[in-house]
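Hello forum,

I keep getting stuck at the same step: I have a sequence, I want structure tokens, and every attempt I make locally crashes halfway through. Rather than fight my setup again tonight, could one of you with a working pipeline run this one for me? It's a single chain of 132 residues.
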Amino acid sequence: MLKSPSWSSPLAEVIFGAMTELLRQSIAIKVRTARAALNWSQEQLAAKIAKTPESVSNIERAKQLPALDTLLELARVLDLSVLEIIDASQDTRKISRERADNEAKIALSVRALSDNGVAIAAQQIEALAKVK
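Reply #2:
Ran it on my machine without issues. Output:
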């Protein structure tokens, strides 16, 4: 009978560490971009979620994962779902920070558009994608 792998195994620790890093990077990009889109300073965001500016800075620099209560507050004040914040489906380590920020800005901007505006934006983006 096979033994279940232990989280203390070296391979499990490497996998868990990589997953945690990817999640930290994803959250950092989403929080930083959403805050900037609202024209808030780190201090303003910190006050809204009852955390220190240093905590916000650490989250935005991917130095720490926010606790669940902090993640819920971030989602609430930034008008994002928790799933939007933690979505790490795109490997943020393979694209530049500038590109990740721009993609997040586009996603946030689209949320403010009417259905017709979204259709027009989609057509424009498709046209831009054809330009190499």
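The longest helix spans residues 10-37. If your local run keeps crashing, start a new thread with the error log.
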